[in-house]
């Protein structure tokens, strides 16, 4: 299963369709295409799917989504295999 995950943009380089961002996912930093979210700036949260930022999130949405993902992970780790 593939999930879209929120991350925070640390830095941006390039323009238009070649625009790339360094995005932090809980400390793990990945290069992500920002072509689909031209309004995104450093410090913003974006939803990333297969290496592409597909939408921008406000801080409250990002924190809520990260909390849900942590709860899912905790639940999965507590269930017997």
From TrEMBL:
GO terms for molecular function: carbon dioxide binding; iron ion binding. SUPFAM superfamilies: HupF/HypC-like. It holds the Pfam family HupF_HypC. It comes from the Bacteria. One of its GO terms (biological process) is protein maturation. Belongs to the HupF/HypC family. NCBIfam families: hypC_hupF. This is HypC/HybG/HupF family hydrogenase formation chaperone. It comes from Adonisia turfae CCMR0082. The lineage of its organism: Bacteria, Bacillati, Cyanobacteriota, Adonisia, Adonisia turfae.
